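Figure 2 data, in text form.
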Amino acid sequence: MSKRRTWGKLHLGVNEATREIVAAVVTTNDISDEQVFCDLLDGVEGEIAQVSGDGAYDKCNCYEKARQKGAKITIAPRKNAVILQHGNCRGTSHPRDENLRRIRICGRKKWKGESGYHRRSLSETTMFRLKAWG
């Protein structure tokens, strides 16, 4: 019988204005970030203005959940991402495709500044504070 140590993961939703943790989910290390995204958003009471996340959240279900919550979506598309719905298609364009189009025009670095993507680092800072405190 093996006694391997397994780690838990703490997923946080942070209010950027107050730096307050507004949602938290603890999982085992075999659960992906994308799998708990909906639970995090469901744990937030009130309005969500913007959702920011790295490429781990670049999934259709994450975009759909953020859209349902009425949030601006600034999830960084993966490096190899392709446009899902081209401009000649009917219907509204997908936020991910709009992000990709803007990245292609001005570059990833400028898109991050324009979109407010860097605000996601506030959750990283919150996690650092938790680690330093505990």
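Caption note: The two ends are 32 Å apart (CA to CA).
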